[in-house]
Amino acid sequence: MESIVSTSIGYAFLLTLIAGLSTGIGGAIAFFARRTNTKLLAVSLGFSAGVMIYVSFSEILSEAHHTLAEGYGDKAGAWYAVLAFFGGMLLIALIDKLVPSYENPHEIRSIEDMNKTDKLKDTHKLKRMGVLAALAIIIHNFPEGLATFTAALSDPSLGLAIAIAIAIHNIPEGIAVAVPFYYATGNRKKAFLLSFLSGLSEPVGAVIGFLILMPFMTPLVFGVIMAGVAGIMVFISLDELLPAAEEYGEHHLSIYGVVAGMAVMAVSLLLFV
Predict the structure, then answer these.
(1) Which of 6, 15, 148, 204 is the most exposed place for a label (fewest CB within 10 A)?
(2) What is the residue-wise DSSP string for 240-270?
(3) pTM of this prediction?
(4) How many CA atoms lie within 13 A of 31 on its CB side?
């Protein structure tokens, strides 16, 4: 536990902040791009899913099991790790269930579609969509922030990889917030600011998690958190990233992205062995 505490908290927080505020990149893309680059988004989201899935099974869950086994024995440690892994999945699934699909930021949005919607001049509905999408992102990003922060405290290079994957995953969320709000209000600045600030919940979630959990950090708590983080990231990949990647582009493009993400993650981990 000493090595965890001694790792730079500032570095872990910075990674979480960057990952969260990448929603602002999505907001910027929405205003400066003439059309949605669906192929790039499909590959990028697939890449992000590949990174998350690979690192969850090869590193995070493995480390959680190792930590729990040291304190409670191999068999009990394995049970704790598995239960925490599926507990993480259940947590993010419940959060996702609480958000209506219409306001869910992971529902596919494109610049072209929003242009069509604008013609309906249903500004109240569009504004509500943007605001509620921002609130949905705030809810979703709490566990993601804790995941990035905890991983970075455990292993800086692992935290960097997860931060990059989550940052890619947050870009379409920024589009989902900024575009409808802009077409409802006509105010680019406010729409961009809303998309940018919606990502702040990620570092806020990290800080709250840190303040609450660190005073009680034991091998059991740390192992359970790490296994739960693995479950959260696998669920996000399977339930959000891969379906979104397929809807944005061709099936094969998203799979190529997944394989590329896994390969890059595998090579980067081997380089630090």
Answers:
(1) 6
(2) IIHHHHHHHS-HHHHHHHHHHHHHHHHHHHH
(3) 0.69
(4) 19
Contact predicate 146/95, CB 8 Å: no
Nearest one of 166, 220, 217 to 17, comparing CA atoms: 166
Contact 47, 257 (CB under 8 A): yes
End-to-end Cα distance, the chain: 20
Burial status of residue 212 (CB atoms within 10 A of its CB: 0-12, 13-18, 19 or more): exposed
Indicate the residue type of 241: L
Query: Looking at the 3D structure of the chain, how many domains does it have?
Result: 1
Q: With pLDDT > 90 as the criterion, what percentage of the chain qualifies?
A: 12
According to DSSP H, which parts of the chain are helical? 2-6, 9-21, 23-32, 38-55, 61-72, 74-98, 111-118, 123-154, 156-185, 188-198, 201-213, 219-236, 242-248, 251-271
CA distances from 115 to 10, 30, 121, 122 (A): 41, 11, 10, 12
Q: What would the DSSP string read from start to end of 154-165?
A: H-HHHHHHHHHH
Quote the DSSP letter at residue 16. Answer: H
Alpha-carbon dihedral angle through residues 216, 164, 66, 239, given to the nearest 10 degrees: 90
Find the domain containing 99 and state its range.
2-271
**Band of pLDDT at residue 132, cut at 50, 70 and 90:** low
Q: How many residues does the chain have?
A: 273
Alpha-carbon gap, residue 90 to 143, rounded angstroms: 12
Of 139, 141, 153, whose CA–CA distance to 226 is shortest? 153
pLDDT per position as a tens digit, 47-94: 888 888 998 898 889 888 998 998 889 999 999 999 999 999 998 888
